[in-house]
Write the structure tokens for this entry.
Amino acid sequence: MAPLLEVRNLTVAFDTPSGTVHAVNDVSYTIEEGETLGIVGESGSGKSVHALSMVGLIATPPGRIVRGEVVFNGRDLLKLSQRELLDLRGKEIGFVFQDPMTSLNPVLTVERQIAEPLKRHFGMTSAQARARVIELLELVGIPDAARRAGQYPHEFSGGMRQRVMIAIGISCNPKLLIADEATTALDVTVQAQILDLVRDLKRKIGTTVIWITHDMGVVAGLADTVQVMYGGRIMERGPVRSVFHDPRSAYTWGLLKSLPHGGKRGVTRLYQIPGNPPDLTRDPIGDPFAPRNPFATDRCKVETPPLVDAADSVAGHKVAAWYDLRAALATQEARP
Ligand SMILES: Nc1ncnc2c1ncn2[C@@H]1O[C@H](COP(=O)(O)OP(=O)(O)OP(=O)(O)O)[C@@H](O)[C@H]1O
Ligand SMILES: [Mg+2]
């Protein structure tokens, strides 16, 4: 069966007064129907830009899709008109973004905001839309849904607003749900509830999910596949267990090492990978992580490693690295 989404060589740049920012560089991957893909990487690694550019949501200019294809359900989204994209967004591809306070309209009731895409995409009447709004609010775990529907965003707590955003994201039963830092601003308990909710929804309606986050713990609990991005590139990708237990990219290894052990998540101070994020205005040549990678070879600095199958690993585990992390770590351990 063809994958639900196939991204091929997606390359996105921003033309700015201080030069061209190479935000997304030659990103290729596929997602199967029903799969949950977790995308991680530190700030500025291109996670949001890559997702937004797939559905025509980056401002052009300054943004520019340099090349690539994004085949969703057999169609190249990068070739669609604004009108076709408008039809697609919210209906076939749902979104949940961080910060529901700015994403929700403060002067419209929650009901109006959830009902709008239902009326637009399915031509529902107000009564039909209202029934569906209440059903959705119940589905995302908002108590007293019929009364709450008539309230304004400021009458909801942060966690409840995020649930409203999820209700909007899934309102049209999208084939693909893209969540970008959807739980980052929430406290740990509410975050856990939202993740339970997403797992539940996947069971009930079988949605395919792209979950973008800084939090490796969230990925471990939610995703089938993890994709690690750095400097606008995919550094490593594969089944969550394999990547977490047997990372092959020094960047992934650094991220995993930075996870707090013991104690409650988010309480322990994180280990930081030494060095600075890459300067994206430089030509994207070589392995972007090379300057911070203790195991980098000369080749890493001058030639970009392709994303290829990791040696002696499970199917689908891929890495972009010229060095051999396992060998390098073994040598390091053997040192006195
Ligand atoms: N409108 C813009 N103009 C210029 N550069 C931009 C613009 N939008 C994004 N960028 C740059 O593109 C790069 C990738 O940004 P992106 O938002 O995708 O990162 P991210 O991985 O989502 O980070 P975060 O985890 O902080 O959300 C960054 O260097 C960012 O500064
Ligand atoms: Mg982002």
